[in-house]
Amino acid sequence: MPSFTYRAIGYHGCSEEKALVVSQQGTWPPSNKGWLGPGIYFWDNDKKTAGWWATRIVDDQAPRVIRAEIDLSDCLDLTTVFAQNALRKVARSIAPSKRSEAALQNLEARGFTRDGALVHLTQEALKVAGRPPVKGVRIAVHLKEGNDTAQSVGTQLVAGFRMVIVVFDPSIIKKCEVCDGA
Length: 182
Prior knowledge:
Layout: E1 7-15, H1 16-25, E2 40-44, H2 47-57, E3 63-71, E4 76-77, H3 81-94, H4 98-109, H5 114-128, E5 136-143, E6 150-152, E7 161-167, E8 173-178
Parallel strand pairs: 4-5
Antiparallel strand pairs: 1-2, 1-3, 2-7, 3-8, 5-6, 5-7
């Protein structure tokens, strides 16, 4: 029986220079910071928002958008109840511990959001349990009007709702191409 692969189309807003590196060398330089920590951030099936984002992050270069096919088979899909419950379980297991709270605060001091710190600690818990880490996260976010920061929306349906894929392991990016314009 053939195995099932769960794939998504993601759009990454970036500078022209980064788009050239990705298209010519096939390497993805990850962001050292971000809402969920270091990774490669994509807007899930949303080229328009990726173009908007690209115009906000480039200085003196032309903004570009890269379209990528992403294998989500080994990702934490926080749009599903199963994954949300798994993350809640990790959050509950670390909450009572002063050591765990210190770890969360340390990650937050390094620029992680609380959500990002929880995802990072989930990765650590998987490692301790002898399980492979997740290679990415798919999550619903809310962009506040007039603000470029993302926040998870949980179960709320609100204006500004977007889907984001954060890739931790670039091997799950199967194909990519630079789109016209941004």
